[in-house]
Specification:
The protein is mostly helical. It has two domains: 8-187 and 331-338, Cytochrome c-like domain (Cytochrome Bc1 Complex, Chain D, domain 2); 191-329, Cytochrome Bc1 Complex, Chain D, domain 2. Helices cover 35% and strands 1% of the residues. The chain contains 15 helices and two strands. The protein has helices spanning 8-20, 53-63, 76-79, 126-129, 131-135, 144-151, 155-165, 171-183, 191-196, 206-216, 222-225, 251-254, 286-295, 314-325, 330-333; strands at residues 236-237, 263-264. It has a two-stranded antiparallel ribbon with strand order 1-2. Helix 2 (53-63) runs antiparallel to helix 7 and helix 2 (53-63) packs across helix 8 (171-183). The relative contact order is 0.15.
């Protein structure tokens, strides 16, 4: 069920505004009326974590809560910045007390649709994924039980837990509330969307249209992996970044040799905002990304069959970069309702 308005920003901004005005009625949302961009599937919420505005508000507060880290130094929002489409602008983000992370922080846009989480795909639900940064020594460096005990000492959180889940502040509440907020991070209002979904043929210029056609062509094979409404098939692939990898990728989860150095295919939405790129943040620009694929990547036994020398001209490479920039959703990145 696809409902108007197309984007989340207007509705959530109204919700935040109404929450700040004591006399204004609060708008109740459910999964049946959650605003979805045209061409996107409906969001499915778990049976034990259906959407309510109270849960969304608590999740948002917890997303930016530094008390979730051992020394009160970082929050989810420290590495997933809203103005960067909930990614980071460094190769490896700093965790609690300045510890360096192991992989590049991916965008959280449209994580509501992901079938599994982390770059190696080792976590099946968004609720469970929230436990990963909490317990990693180079991220939050603590555990969910201690966090719950810490938050129980804060009356505001105690009240919010009761109002949202009718229980005390505990690991269940923390993980479910943050997941509720993260599921609302829907991005589908780029100029590309205006061109494809709304039929606004002036939304893209001639160069961007050429780049789109090239992106979809068999010459580049881009759309073999970066497909669908979210520009990803969510599969695990090796793109020939290195011959030897320090990060084993999917192999760490399965132990299967053909999964070595494979990582979940990322969405290309808002890619202009989410540099640096690759699982380790080793590519700094879109131009370097296009050049990597144009060259065909390094030799690796698990490299995707679609990654091979392309022989693109400079004009074609420029066209591809221009198209990729058309996937930027300025309304999403600038939505004040998502900010602390």
């Amino acid at each position: 069920m696809h409902l108007l308005p197309r984007i989340l920003s207007g509705i959530l901004a109204l919700l935040v505004l109404s929450a700040c005005q004591e006399e204004a009625p609060e708008i109740a949302l459910s999964k049946d009326v959650f605003p979805i961009p045209a061409g996107f599937p409906k969001i499915e919420f778990p049976d034990d974590n259906q959407f309510t505005i109270e849960r969304w508000k608590l999740g948002k507060k917890l997303f930016y809560e530094k008390a979730l880290s051992l020394n009160n130094t970082v929050s989810c929002g420290s590495c997933h910045k809203p103005e960067l489409a909930f990614s980071d602008n460094v190769a490896l983000s700093l965790g609690d007390s300045g510890k360096v992370g192991r992989s590049n922080a991916p965008t959280l846009a449209n994580v509501a649709y992901h079938p599994y989480f982390t770059r190696a795909g080792g976590v099946p639900t968004l609720e469970m994924q929230i436990l990963v940064p909490i317990q990693e020594h180079d991220e939050f460096n603590t555990n969910i039980v201690d966090i719950a005990e810490r938050l129980k000492q804060i009356p505001e959180y105690v009240e919010a837990a009761q109002n949202s889940y009718n229980r005390e502040m505990d690991p269940f509440v923390i993980t479910r509330a943050i997941a509720t907020f993260e599921r609302s991070l829907i991005s589908g209002n780029s100029r590309y969307d205006a061109y494809v979904q709304n039929g606004d043929f002036d939304a893209l210029n001639d160069q961007e249209k050429r780049g789109l056609q090239l992106f979809l062509s068999d010459k580049t094979n881009c759309s073999k992996c970066h497909t669908g409404f979210d520009f990803t098939n969510y599969a695990f692939e090796n793109n020939g970044l290195y011959t030897d990898y320090t990060d084993l990728g999917r192999f760490r989860v399965t132990g299967v040799e053909t999964d070595r150095a494979k990582f979940k295919v990322p969405s290309l939405r808002n890619i202009e905002l989410t540099a640096p790129y690759m699982h380790d943040g080793s590519k700094l620009t879109l131009e370097s990304i296009v050049e990597h694929y144009n060259a065909g990547g390094a030799i690796h036994p698990n490299k995707s069959q679609f990654v091979k020398p392309l022989g693109l001209t400079q004009e074609e490479k420029d066209d591809l970069v221009a198209f990729l920039k058309s996937l930027t959703d300025a309304a999403f990145a600038g939505n004040s309702a998502f900010r602390p």
